[in-house]
Write a structure and sequence with these properties.
Shape: flat
Number of domains: 2
Distance between the termini: 43 Å
Strand order of the largest sheet: 1-2
Largest sheet: 2 strands, antiparallel
Number of helices: 15
Length: about 375
């Protein structure tokens, strides 16, 4: 893993991955507000994550080769800081091809794409988070500024030179798209009542979809942490050794070490520090393991370790084979067993519960109904 490749991978992880992951708190808020994911809240949350992923992909990729870096321009000379200069570009294009042919020019479609890119992001953010429109536009403006600054600075100095140009008009058009998205959201919300469902009690056992999403979030975060940790270690190693290839750590040792560290962090430390003993993915889905013999009590310390070993050890040993097989085994177990407990549930003496159901059981001694099929 060379220095340039490490820089490119760091760019992907910190932008293309983190922008969608930054929407997870909104997803968590949606689950807490509506009790569970279904109908329009589910559609809005999925749309927000998808639009954030699309936004990241369009603004980061394609990554440059070393020959594509804009090193010919020093400092801020490559930045376009004249507001509304795109209007002059449109006029020039209209003079060249005529007004009727303007829609076929690259200048027109570039402006349209910059506007359209933020319309779904702002629309779904407004629908999922239910923030004031001003807050949604302000956040969209901040995201656009961050993207442009990352492009104009070579991802804040990770690259020796920028590979795209900072353009003030991109921020203006992105923000315009966000305003249109909020207006569209307000119109849809006013016309269609199904976009404003009433919250429902979240006392039934979490269904397979909800539990699968929690596992998916945990695995995605773990993979990103492993890749990010490896990149950071390689970059630090190369900087401290001056790029001496003979002193670069072995890939196998680096891979093993980072997988073990991330598995311990995700499976033991994170839930161990939380009062509800939930992993990050479970916390987003508002679910947590509860003791079978005491539905209102969180899992014991030994139970936490057993669950971590069952779920994460296969990924440490073989992320390409044993890890996916364990996920399939966990899902198959929930299908076969009437109580829908997974392998890690059975081994650790726990049952997956929604947080409100656990709180109800703790307060009134009333456990959730294991036969419910709610998702």
């Amino acid at each position: 893993m060379g220095l340039y490749y490490s820089s490119a991978l760091l760019t992907v992880l910190a932008t293309a991955a983190l922008i969608p992951l930054a929407t997870l708190p909104v997803l968590a808020r949606t689950v807490r507000k509506y009790g569970r994911l279904h109908g329009w809240p589910l559609f809005a949350a999925a749309g927000l994550i998808a639009s954030a992923a699309a936004l990241a992909a369009f603004t980061v990729f394609p990554l440059p080769s070393e020959d594509d870096l804009l090193c010919s321009a020093a400092g801020l000379e490559n930045w376009q800081t004249t507001p509304l200069h795109s209007i002059d570009d449109l006029r020039a294009a209209a003079d060249a091809v005529g007004t009727s042919g303007l829609a076929g020019t690259f200048t027109f479609w570039q402006l349209a794409a910059n506007v359209a890119l933020f319309v779904p992001f702002a629309f779904f953010l407004h629908q999922a988070a239910r923030w004031p429109g001003v807050a949604v536009v302000a956040l969209s403006f901040a995201v656009s500024c961050t993207i442009e600054l990352s492009q104009g600075t070579g991802f804040f100095g990770v690259y020796p030179c920028p590979y795209r140009r900072f353009d003030i008009d991109d921020i203006i058009t992105n923000t315009t798209g966000a305003i249109l998205g909020v207006v569209l959201s307000a119109i849809v919300g006013a016309l269609f009542r199904f976009t404003r469902p009433a919250p429902t009690p979240d006392l039934a056992p979490p269904g397979r979809v909800r539990r699968a999403l929690a596992v998916l979030i945990d695995l995605t975060l773990a993979l990103l942490l492993v890749a990010g940790l490896q990149v950071v270690l390689v970059l630090a190693w190369e900087v401290t050794t001056g790029g001496d290839a003979e002193r670069i750590p072995e890939n196998s040792a680096l891979s093993w070490g980072t997988r073990v560290a991330v598995a311990v962090w995700m499976g033991v430390i994170v839930p161990g520090l939380r009062r509800d003993r939930a992993t990050w993915g479970q916390a987003v889905m508002y679910i947590t393991p509860a003791r079978v013999d005491a539905p209102g009590a969180v899992q014991a310390g030994w139970s936490l370790w057993v669950r971590a070993v069952v779920r994460w050890l296969p990924w440490v040993l073989s992320p390409a084979v044993a890890g996916p097989l364990m996920v399939m085994a966990e899902f198959a177990c929930t299908v076969v067993r009437r109580d829908r407990r997974s392998v890690s549930d059975v081994a650790s003496g726990t049952r997956m519960s929604s947080v409100p159901a656990m709180e109800q059981a703790r307060r009134y001694g009333v456990a959730q109904d294991p036969g419910s099929l709610a998702s």
